[in-house]
Amino acid sequence: MSEELKECPFCREKASIQDCSYLGSAPAWCVMCDNPKCFAYTEALKTKKEAVERWNNRPAEEALQKRIAGLEAERDHFREVAKKLVWLYSDEHQERLDNGLRIDGFYSHEWLGMILNMAREALEGSGE
Ligand SMILES: [Zn+2]
Question: Is 22 helix (H, G, I), strand (E, B) or coil?
Fold first, then answer.
């Protein structure tokens, strides 16, 4: 078998290919979840290859995984913006902020400009 079977979409257990010819016309193959408490299976198909393809074909799940990855990237970007703001306004920098001095080589207004640009980038990424 060249193609690996994906885990069960319902219980995440392994699945295996089964001879389902007992269900009717032979030859017939289906993929069944190995979990005895889960009854997920494909219909009976003429070849093992078709059964594997049917089991593994999950366009909705793949679209959701892609969307989740995109949302996680957006979340990470917003976290970076928040971390920079928290870092800039931490006690360690308060005196320098109050006195208009440089922090890590930049004045506070320059830091705010950089953080603002990061926030704008993050908002563009999120479709705002
Ligand atoms: Zn299952």
Answer: helix
